[in-house]
Specification:
By secondary structure, the chain is α/β, with parallel strands linked by helices. The protein has a single domain, classed as P-loop containing nucleotide triphosphate hydrolases (Rossmann fold, 3-Layer(aba) Sandwich). It is built from 13 helices and 8 strands. Strand 6 (207-213), helix 10 and strand 7 form a beta-alpha-beta unit. The structure holds adenosine-5'-diphosphate and magnesium ion (MG). Adenosine-5'-diphosphate binds at residues 23, 25-31, 57, 243-244, 315, 317-318, 321-322.
Amino acid sequence: MPSTSPPARASGWPGVRLHVVTGKGGTGKTTVAAALALALAGRGARVLLAEVEDRQGISQAFDVPPLPPTEVPIVSYDHGGQVVGLAVDAKAALLEYLQLFYKLGRAGGVLERFGAIDFATTIAPGVRDVLLIGRVYEASRRRVDSKHHRHSDTTPLAYDAIVLDAPPTGRIGRFLTVGSEVAGLARMGPIRAQGDSVNELLTSPATRIHVVTLLEEMPVQETIDAVAELRGLGMAMGAIVVNQARLADGEDFAGVDLVELVHALTDDLPTVGIEAKPALVSALVEQVRDHATREDLELTHLQALEQLDLPIVTVPALLDGIDPDALREIAGLLTEQGMTVRVTAGSR
Ligand SMILES: Nc1ncnc2c1ncn2[C@@H]1O[C@H](COP(=O)(O)OP(=O)(O)O)[C@@H](O)[C@H]1O
Ligand SMILES: [Mg+2]
């Protein structure tokens, strides 16, 4: 494989309004999306953090009660930065959509009663995805469409940025192209318009797709495949976020001479009052060897990712798991590595 120069550092993604976070299931999409939203808010942005997978991952990460299908402030900073959470729900999105476009008002109540049937299982998956992404699209266009700037308590907020905790890599291409699919089905009317606009937003320079991965074979392969697929669809990629990397844990055992290590341990353990029993020495050496082997493997995976020519951002495994403190820590790491820009009130 040709070796490339080291990946460029992320530049804060100026001009990007929609950050889509995908990755193989379980790699840390929700964690990274939540931390990115927090990082952006920490720099002054009003951020909508949206999830579409019915998992309540956001509320778990932030340790707040389950989110309703409406926008709920989760974190607010004195300087104006804010994270607003939204668990997008297809049925709620459909009702809002009908009210918005057909001014249905309470006639939507008919559909409300349709809730007796299980909406989620009766609706076709493609239509469901259009509703989910359409809801995110609706939130993203508020700033440009002045008719939404009614100045009352019920005025929906306009956002500086939206972070979407998106479906996993295996479904992301399909999910992000439902707009064109629907636009292709409906020749005109609001559905066609919505499909076209969603597609336009997703392929515009205001959208970036970040892929979260572990330095393991399957997620790395899925990352490489997803980047190829998304690029083929004309979508702009953001960063590769390497989560739970041992390489990032600050311990470097690569290249340690194991024979020398045996001698060193045999000499040094007694000086700290520990008997250098062979079983103990070999157990310690074994651990170092394990760690070094894993580091080696991770390095191979990292090199494969570097071929993608995208900024690579690393997040270590946090031993105490993910809670609001851990999110703040990861947010800090994301900012340090160029995932955010400062937002000033004037730029809104
Ligand atoms: N950097 C990290 N350090 C420690 N635990 C993590 C880290 N990132 C994610 N986790 C944990 O790994 C699990 C999967 O993460 P999650 O963000 O829910 O993944 P996904 O949304 O991709 O399924 C969760 O239990 C989460 O708390
Ligand atoms: Mg998740």
